[in-house]
């Protein structure tokens, strides 16, 4: 009974620290594991996207399209089994322990690495990375260092758009689908 105030303090402290991690990284849906690492990675126009396999070039192009539309520049894409400092590395590793779409995102001071068990996982990792990018055009794109491990909780994801009672233009439906993909 005497330890009750101490346990209450520990629970409040843990809840407060978890809340600050959620506030610092507004990632939706919230990943299975997020580890805060000190420092930041600066994404520069001179950086490159390195894909471990040519099949990931489409995902790299999708990320480049996002950068072009929101920040006004594109990164070079090249194929290699490793990345140098200042680069974004995308790879698919044969690890069937997790659900299809599982990924690990690692942002360090030197590079960004997304490892996944499938192309779907690489896509989900890129969507998490996009959420970590600064809002609006900036001269300096600092991405906080972080370790994220996630996998889909369900076999499906979806939202409902009621088009029988509310009519939407085709442009809205296409934009809605783009938001769902993100």
What does this structure look like?
The protein is α/β, with parallel strands linked by helices and about 180 residues long. Helices cover about 35% and strands about 25% of the residues. The protein has a seven-stranded mixed beta sheet with strand order 1-7-5-6-4-2-3, with helices on one face. The protein is globular and about 60 Å long. The mean pLDDT is about 85.
Q: Average pLDDT value?
A: 84
Q: How many DSSP helices? A: 4
Describe the sheet with the most strands: 7 strands, mixed
Q: Indicate the overall shape.
A: globular
H-E order: HEEHEEEEHEH
* Radius of gyration, in angstroms, nearest whole number: 19 Å
How many E-type strands? 7
- In percent, how much strand structure appears in the residues? 15-25%
Q: Which properties best describe this structure?
A:
alpha/beta; 24% strand; 182 residues; seven-stranded mixed sheet; 34% helix
Question: Mind sketching the topology for me?
Answer:
Blueprint: H1 4-24, E1 33-43, E2 48-51, H2 57-71, E3 76-79, E4 88-92, E5 103-107, E6 112-116, H3 119-132, E7 141-150, H4 170-181
Short structural summary:
The chain is an alpha/beta fold. The chain has four helices and seven strands; from the N terminus they run αββαββββαβα.
């Amino acid at each position: 009974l005497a330890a009750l105030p101490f346990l209450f303090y520990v629970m409040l402290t843990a809840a407060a620290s978890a809340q600050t991690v959620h506030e610092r990284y507004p990632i939706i849906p919230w990943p299975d594991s997020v580890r805060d690492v000190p420092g930041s990675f600066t994404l520069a126009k001179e950086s490159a996207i390195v894909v471990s396999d040519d099949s990931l070039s489409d995902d790299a192009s999708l990320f480049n399209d996002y950068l072009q539309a929101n920040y006004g520049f594109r990164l070079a894409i090249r194929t290699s089994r490793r990345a140098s400092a200042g680069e974004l590395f995308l790879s698919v590793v044969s690890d069937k322990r997790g659900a299809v779409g599982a990924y690990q995102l690692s942002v360090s001071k030197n590079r960004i690495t997304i490892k996944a068990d499938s192309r779907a996982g690489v896509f989900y990792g890129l969507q998490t990375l996009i959420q970590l990018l600064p809002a609006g055009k900036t001269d300096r794109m600092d991405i906080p260092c972080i370790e994220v491990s996630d996998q889909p909780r369900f076999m499906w994801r979806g939202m409902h758009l009621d088009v029988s009672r509310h009519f939407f233009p085709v442009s809205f439906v296409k934009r809605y689908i783009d938001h769902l993909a993100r």
